Amino acid sequence: MKTGKSDRGSPSRSGKRRRPPANRRRRKALGLSGLTEQNLQNMRISDLYRPVKKPVTLRLDADILAWFKKDGRRYQTRINAALRKVMEKEMR
């Protein structure tokens, strides 16, 4: 019989605890608790900045795309990093 109460805080039926919320996992992954003054001075904005990703269609030359893909997965991340580097350089 249901009592109308949520079982959100309790372990699942298998006895395992649920994963922590995504925001708590992100804070832990960033390692913000271990930052020292020297680390903060050496950091760039992009080290902590998590921009919103927007899907786009981009036409690239075949040789450029092949060069980014030669290292395997995450080639889109490497293209984004290269573009961000150029953008930050031009903003100075």
Can you describe this structure?
By secondary structure, the chain is an all-alpha fold. It has helices spanning 22-30, 37-42, 45-48, 62-69, 75-91. It has one domain. It has five helices and no strands. The longest helix is centred in the C-terminal third of the chain and has 17 residues, at 75-91. The chain is extended and about 45 Å long. The chain starts with 21 loop residues before the first helix and ends with a helix. The model has no long low-confidence stretch (mean pLDDT 75).
Task: List its traits.
92 residues; mainly alpha; 5 helices; extended
Helix content: 40-55%
Q: Tell me the number of helical segments per DSSP (H or I, 4 or more residues long).
A: 5
Number of strands: 0
Shape: extended
The first-to-last residue Cα distance is: 65 Å
- Note the quaternary state here: single chain
- Which structural class do you get from the secondary structure elements? mainly alpha
Give the arrangement of secondary structure elements.
Elements: H1 22-30, H2 37-42, H3 45-48, H4 62-69, H5 75-91
Question: What would a concise description of this structure say?
Answer:
Helix content is 48%, strand content 0%. The protein is mostly helical. It has one domain.
